[in-house]
Amino acid sequence: MKVTDLRKKIKIQVKAEWEGRNYRAEVAGEAVRDAFKTRSAVISKRKKGLKCDYKFKSVKEVRQSFVEQRLTKKFMGNFFVTEEIGEESFGRTTDIIFKSGRWFVCAPVHTEISLSAENQGLKICSADPGVRIFATTFDGQESVKYGDGFYSQKVFPLLPDLDNLISGRQIFLNSKPDRKTQAFSDKMRFFAKCVNKLRNRIEDLTDDLHRRVAYDLVTKNDVILLPIFETKDMASKQDRKISSKTVRSMLGLAHYKFKQTMQWMCLKYGKTLVDVNEAYTSKTMSWCGKIKENLGGSKIISDGIIKVDRDINAARNILLKSIAVA
Fold first, then answer.
1. How do the domains of the chain map onto residue ranges?
2. pLDDT tens per residue across span 45-92
3. Is the separation of the CB atoms in 266 and 218 below 8 Å?
4. CB atoms near residue 37 (< 10 Å)
5. Number of helices (H), then strands (E), in the chain
6. Are 81 and 62 contacting, i.e. CB atoms less than 8 angstroms apart?
7. I want to staple 225 with a disulfide (CB 3.0 to 4.6 A). Which of 126, 179, 283, 314 is the partner?
C-alpha cells in the first residue's frame, strides 16, 4: 500500500476516534510517514546483517514531538517565545519538541558556512576526553585543560537534591494514595516540575560547556583530533573497572553529544574533525615510548625521572600517534 493511500485511511479513522476533541490531521499524517521511514530503515539495516526491530513510541518518553507542516505567524501567536523567529522560517516544515517540561520550536534558518582552509599551514590539535577534566588538548606547543572540576563543582552539588526528589516521589507512590483525587495530581505535578527544573539546569550547564569548548577549538585550530570515546561500553556493568560514581559523572558529561556539537561547529566554520583511536595513549610515556601497565587512577605518569600530567601525556600521545599513522 502506498503512503498516501494509508495516510488517508488513518486520518479518517483517527478523526472518527477523536470526534469532539482537538484533532490535527498533520499529526496523523506525520505518524504514517514516520512508520514508513522506520520500516525502510529497519529493512536497510537487516540487509546489512544488523539486528533491529520495530517498537511503538511511548507516551512516557522524556522527548515528545510533532511536526507543523507550514509554520505560520498565526500558529506562533498562540504562545510566548523567548527568541524571535526570522521571516525565512515561516511557511516551512518545523519540528515542535516537548522535553522535560519545556517546548522547543526547531525552525529551519539560513546559516552561512565557511569554506575549508587550504592544506598549507594548517594548525592541528588533539583532544583527550575525560571525567575529572572534561577535555585536555595539545597542539604541539601548549596544552589546555577544559572543564577542570566542572562536574564536581557545578553538576554534582545538584545531584543529591535530584535524588531526594525522585526518592520522595517513589515513597509517595508506594504509600498507595488515591490516584483519582486532585490532591494526587497536584502532588505528582509538583514532583515532575521540580525534577524537570533540576534536570534542565544540569543539561543547560553541560550544553554551555560543550558550546564554549567547541567554539574555542574551532577558532584556534584547523584540524581537531577527537578520540572515539565509547562511554556505553565503559559504563556496561559486565567487566566494568570503574565505580558507579565515575560512570554517572562520565554519562553526565555527555561526550557523544559534545562530538555532535563539534561536528556542527566544524561544518559551520570550515574546520576538519577527525575520529582517532586513543588505545594506550594514557599508559604510554610520550617522551620514551615505554608502557606503564600499573597506571591505574594516578594523575601523574612517571618513569622515575620525568613526571608528566596524565591527561597532557595522553593528549600528546594522541597527536603523535595520529601523525605517525597518517
1. 1-56, 58-110, 124-158+198-325
2. 999 988 888 888 887 788 888 888 888 888 888 888 888 888 888 998
3. yes
4. 11
5. 10, 10
6. no
7. 126
User: Other C-beta atoms within 10 Å of 320: how many?
Assistant: 17
What three-state secondary structure class fits 75? helix
**Three-class DSSP category at 129:** strand
What is the rounded distance in angstroms from the CA atom of residue 133 to the CA atom of residue 171? Answer: 36
pTM above 0.85, yes or no: no
CATH for 124-158+198-325 is 3.30.420
For 8, phi and psi rounded to 5 degrees?
-65, -45
| Distance from C-alpha of 30 to C-alpha of 18, rounded to nearest angstrom | 17
Interior/surface letters 85-109, b for 16+ CB within 10 angstroms, e for the rest: eeeebeeeebebeebeeeeebebee
